[in-house]
Automatic annotation (TrEMBL):
The lineage of its organism: Bacteria, Bacillati, Actinomycetota, Actinomycetes, Streptosporangiales. Pfam families: UDPG_MGDP_dh, UDPG_MGDP_dh_C, UDPG_MGDP_dh_N. PROSITE patterns: PROKAR_LIPOPROTEIN. This is UDP-glucose 6-dehydrogenase. It comes from Nonomuraea monospora. Its EC number is 1.1.1.22.
Amino acid sequence: VGKPERQVAVFGAGYIGLVTGACLAELGHRVVVRDIDPDKVALLRSGDVPIYEPGLGDMIVRNKERLTFTLDLEETLRGAEIAYVCVDTPPSASGDADLSRIWSVVKSLEGAAHLKAVVVKSTVPVGTGARVRSALDAAGLAHVGYAANPEFTAEGRAVADFMRPDRIVIGAADEAVAQLIADLHDGVDGPVVVMDVRSAEMVKLASNALLATKISFINEIATLCEKTGADVEEVARAVGLDHRLGPHFLRPGIGWGGSCFPKDSEALRQLASNTGYHLQLLSAVIEVNNLQKRRAIQKLKDELGTLAGMRVALLGLTFKPGTDDMREAPSTVLAGRLLAEGAEVSCWDPMARPGEVEPWVSTTRHATPEEAMAGADAVIVVTEWPQLKEVDWAKAAESMRRPVLFDGRNLLDPAGMRALGYTYMSVGRP
Ligand code: UGA
């Protein structure tokens, strides 16, 4: 017998709010998603989805009886038992997470005395839950429970990650509240782990930091492989077979980006320094990630003598394949450096959304990788889009002014590319 169907208010129709709202509706709950952006709400109401996420659009359509979108606060809270806070927490100038959107949601809950629980899903500094708790108490909502329920969904597989997670982490001071949130996930295939609020907040930040650490670690080993003649792909494969280490997040490359790792690692570092402790390891992890892009530019510079006046093609712009997300994408850092060095940039990406991407993209974007490469002095594979496997690399080499190729994702075969005439460089491979 399934657990009771709940009425849920979701605040924020970004990646997390939409995935949470759609999946909770899929589980049988009644969900109202509120956002303050009229265009976004209008789009969602017309049956469109403002982001690319496999399975999400279908799920929203399939559950339209139970899932509504609104700008209206009263409509959102009417009958709501659980309020899910899914707003974004961008970095502020100081490096601390900017929690203003959280506070405006909490403020809007004043008077919602019928709520049973407020749940924060947004990624927040440890201690935020305690502050929300105090704010609820001060607003006359002392009887309303509080829980932290961080998300571990990766873009491009968020729906699957929600429905079949490695774990559901619930931080709550009150057992009944923890049970309420656990029951809400009835039908989700994954273990529930209950703990105190601060620990749950920390799990999220620690998980992302460790994932970023694995990547920076293998990237540093890759650099050493280049200097010693070892092949990092062989090394990573065999290291990953140790079950204590695992094969995941050991893909060397041009560095991690996206909406989470850069922001969350900075936020964790800032959180630590606010307590008076300097996180040694994480600082190095961030530094190695920055270095990875500088090294790519340096390699091209060494090869071409100068970047001034050179045309460099960037293949792939989004921070990883399978998403249209450009946030903190390595491509933007690379393009910025190239332009600053006086190079010209041409680019290709199958999904980065026109209009929302950096201004340089709109002037130099081409419909195919081959077009972006024609006449270029060098090309960088920035994002490992599967389409790049289909490129006629022989023909593309002929169309370039100089066939210099930096494969920032170790996507292509070194011997094969050299046989086609490329000056081929990759990450940590001889
Ligand atoms: C990440 C985490 O994987 C999720 O668990 C987490 O919930 C999410 O952040 C979040 O905090 O919301 P996401 O940013 O979507 O998810 O992307 P990932 O697939 O983790 O990739 C992050 C970056 O690392 C990408 O730039 C990717 O290219 C890079 N990466 C990943 C590597 O360079 N090597 C690897 O082996 C794996």
